[in-house]
């Protein structure tokens, strides 16, 4: 059939042989299993990095404050403000990290005890008696015993 098409279009079509796929590339994708030990190590590493950044930021603020106080360049004070904001953001990142770890470690099972279809087994008059005891057809009889003094 391809010969007829080739003759009609006055061109020659040659089918290319499929190339071999490198099997090593296909096998390189492996599932990465993450266990709690890895996430705890990552948490500790991130936490240590954030604390290190906080320390470096504090040292940088101290240094730039000295420079800003010795000279009256407005740019130095702008740098101080930027560094203060950066250190504050690192503190927020640290708190967000704690919240994220807490959410990851939180038990995923949530028990929902919502009753959607409650069924009362009894007559309507019994139900009305339960809801409004004053309207009840059955009255409570209170026995009062009077003691004689004599």
Give structural notes.
The protein is mostly helical. The chain has a domain at 65-105. Helix content is 59%, strand content 0%. The protein has helices at residues 2-9, 23-27, 36-70, 74-105, 124-131. Helix 3 packs antiparallel against helix 4 (74-105). It starts with a helix and ends in a 19-residue tail after the last helix.
Task: Provide a quick synopsis of the model.
This protein has 5 helices and no strands. Helix 3 packs antiparallel against helix 4.
Output the keywords:
about 150 residues, mainly alpha
Average predicted local confidence, pLDDT: 78
The arrangement of helices and strands along the chain is: HHHHH
What is the CA-atom radius of gyration, in angstroms?
Answer: 40 Å
Percent helix among the residues? 55-70%
Largest sheet descriptor: none
Helical stretch tally: 5
Question: Which residues sit in consecutive blocks of at least 5 with pLDDT less than 50?
Answer: none
The protein's oligomeric status is single chain
Measured by DSSP, the beta-strand proportion falls in under 5%
Outline the fold blueprint.
Elements: H1 2-9, H2 23-27, H3 36-70, H4 74-105, H5 124-131
Helix pairs in contact: 3-4
